[in-house]
Design goal:
It is a single chain. It contains no helices and twelve strands. By secondary structure, the chain is mainly beta. It has one domain. A hairpin with a 5-residue loop joins strand 9 and strand 10. This is YmaF family protein. It comes from Bacillus lumedeiriae.
Amino acid sequence: MEIPVTGFMFHSDDSDFMHSHRLYITSWDGRPVHVHEFRGVTSYDAGHSHRYAGTTEPAPRGVQHMHRYFTFTSMDDGHYHRIAGTTGPAIPLPGGGHYHEFNGVTTVDGFNPHRHRYSGRTSP
């Protein structure tokens, strides 16, 4: 089975010997792809919380889908945490469009090793 994909390749001219190109997909099976922004504040644990923000990976429009996401929290109490996961399925909005819910736990980090919980909704 072949699925038509369109996009473009971006070359960054840096001197890193581990050089790579980035592929930006603009359509998948004839459907344009889209992303969502997400942000929030983690749970308050070990005497502090963290802020986070990011953009999901692309996914096709017009079909049921989910998005992967990845970001780092703000630096608080001398450390940060990694956040990564997959959103839930698309939830339609009354006027059109959709959003996704997400939740999880951060990596274990800090001088006193701990993790935080996080949850929220993506932008429409």
